[in-house]
Structure formats: structure tokens, C-alpha cells
Design goal:
Layout (H helix, E strand, L loop, with lengths): L13 H34 L4 H27 L3
Helix pairs in contact: 1-2
């Protein structure tokens, strides 16, 4: 028997969500840093697409932007139902 609120085979874990909020806040800050890096990097890659290092920086920034979602999904999956 699942102790979830939505009954979707333990997909809804409100306790895990609350416990993961501090980690999501830290990753949100990293996401903001990623946006700050991504905007100039995207402009530089449009101006000079031959610069390989700019492409790496843009990919790293996109990873930082996606961090809050990945952290919350990972943390919620680790808490048993």
C-alpha cells in the first residue's frame, strides 16, 4: 500500500519535496550563475562560432540552469514511499 497523496505508484512524495527544498535553493543560485554565464557565452558563440571554448562554457552554463530540476528529481527519487 502506498502512503502517497496522489496514488500514482509512489510518484508523489511530499516529505521528500520538503526535505529537498534547501538543496533546490542552492541549485537555484547555481542556475542564476549559469544564466549570467550563458548570456555572454551565447553572444560570443554567435559572433565567433569557431571558438570551441565558448561552446564548452555555454554547455556548462546550460547544465547549471537545469540543476534545480535535476536535484529535485534525484532527491525525491531517493526517499522511499
Amino acid at each position: 500500500m502506498c502512503c502517497c497523496c496522489c496514488g500514482d505508484d509512489c510518484e508523489c512524495r511530499p516529505l521528500a519535496f520538503l526535505l529537498g527544498l534547501p538543496f533546490a535553493f542552492v541549485s537555484l543560485i547555481l542556475s542564476i550563475i549559469g544564466i549570467i554565464i550563458w548570456i555572454p557565452g551565447l553572444l560570443l558563440s554567435c559572433i565567433c562560432p569557431c571558438c570551441f571554448c565558448v561552446t564548452i562554457i555555454v554547455e556548462f552554463a546550460l547544465g547549471l540552469i537545469k540543476a534545480p530540476f535535476l536535484v529535485m528529481e534525484w532527491f525525491i527519487s531517493k526517499i522511499p514511499c
